[in-house]
Amino acid sequence: MPPPFRHPGRFATELVRLARRPRPSYRLNPQLCSRPSSRPSLSFSTLSLLKTSNSGLPAAALLAGVGAGLFSLATAFQDPAGADRDLDRDHDHGHDQNSPSPADDIRDPSVPRYRLSDIHSHDASHPNPWVTHQDKVYDITDWVSAHPGGEVILRAAGQSIDPYWAIFTIHNQTHVKEILDQYLIGYIHAFDLVDGLPPAHAIQDPFASDPPRDPRLFTHTAKPCNAEPPNQALTDEFLTPNELFYKRNHMWVPVVDDNKLDQHTLTVELPDGDVRSYTLDDLKTRFTTHRVTAVLQCSGNRRSDMTRRAGKTNGLQWGVGAISNAEWQGVRLVDVLADAGLQVAGPDAEDESLPDPSTHHVQLTGLEAYGASIPLSTALDPRNDVILAFSMNGQPLPRDHGSPLRAVVPGHVAARSVKWLSKIVISDEESTSQWQRRDYKSFGPNQRDVDWDSAPAIQEMPVTSAITKVLVGQCVRQDDKCGHPVSGPEAGEGREPIAIEGYAMSGGGRYISRVDVSLDGGKTWDQAELLEDPSAGHKAWAWKRWRYLGHLEARPAVAPGQQPQCTEVVVKATDNSYNTQPETHSSIFNLRGNLANAWHRVTVCPECVPAAAAVEGGSGRHKVVWRTGGAYGCGFDREKIGAEVNLRVANKTN
Predict the structure, then answer these.
(1) Could you tell me the fold of the domain covering 464-653?
(2) Which active-site residues does the annotation give?
């Protein structure tokens, strides 16, 4: 028997039944995405659900957690103009030989049948939007109002959701389909079926309108775009060029008419239900503009390092480049909330109806339905420099980075700096999105079957550092490329010059007080030079670039065929609260690979490897990836940097 089709009150009853029925809980497991190859690029949103415990998963939680997947993740595909042509291709002229006639239809005759043309008419403009799955028809009218994705669901109205489920496999779970079945209203008419299913129609790729990206970026996934700049270019400039700023997208890039950017509307909903709306032009003209220099860093930055050194992790295998620094310009969130009429309880407040900043949250939602939240107390402190940004490095926000409006929450994981910002809600609970409740969290090294509710969402980031460039003196660097090996230092010198560059940062506005460098795997240490870069803001929100000039001890010659004796260059940073990085990834290992901030180690061998030779897959591009036992970069101008090395050594001696 087919599932019972929906009638008034049916969904509420079934929701309670499903919520009470014991069933395993699940954790999201983003599949590891391979490096670019001849195979189609996999999406980071291609998720699977793995059993984690025997606790129940209420259907209401599914609406909040999987809600971003069941419809909003997979429903931006819009039927192209004229897609309704031929929906009833055989209505008046016979039908395809593979199409069953009504007499051949063995499905439950008591369930209504609908033509595809009728289904298509129930699009986003219809008061009762429908979708189809396989040969079934669903009325999602009630779902729209209950779904956290809001109007995004309507982008699938009048169409089949099957092609999207083939991409976003999180939906292929029994309990998800059980909930969908509560909306069943009928079957697709037999005339419109081919081999028992509706025919494949042209489907508009939701990523087709994504902006072009710089070819220098290393792309982990193309749809959605997740890419990082090449290591050697990462810290060339204090402010990362917009085109090289790392890309972290969970879905498609929303399309906003360039001629109507100033008409983009942000709604602010207060705890009492009052809603205020602001256009982008309102924000620019009615509020004081502020500049903040702040780094944004993905929680998965250096995840590949943790995977290689401590064990398999789930998620995009970022190198050291899921971090970038920019000067943002916009209006303070606290000013907008005050203008909207938000009143909060003070330390001695007698009015208990006012929201308490220590227990309330600011929920942030983007145009593509991505959602996150930060504590209200964070937003209300002007010294935290939380802004609604419309400019990046002196230019209007690029589309990939949130145009026309994004939140920038300095010192916090970048997942809280919601792009394409369209809605703010002041609530007594965190955002109900899966990204807030079931993603950006960390657990103990031994935890595999995790209770997601037991861990707090990541907010402020820990102290970290990384090496972005190593230049070894036995090579000559010409035109920013590695040259051929040349003879070593002059006889009697006994050592080889080395130059190292990188970045360090800490969350919460804490500044970097020291960067320690070791050239022998951590046996001995020296301090790097911290570069003085100007920045705007109340606290230390930007990264701290550093460099180190020194000498490698000479290595004994090796016989032909033997491996050269390599060394390990190590860096670790300490902030002004004396937080420092852990020595190993094994001590902080977690299945999601988040917050991989152990000492950063790079193996340097007494030989040169051209950058192109170090690229996985042999693409020939001049990019460098971490490779154990291989040289990382090589060569520099002896006259320019060698003199600085000698001067620095002489100063230390004196």
Answers:
(1) Immunoglobulin-like (2.60.40)
(2) 147, 171, 248, 298, 440
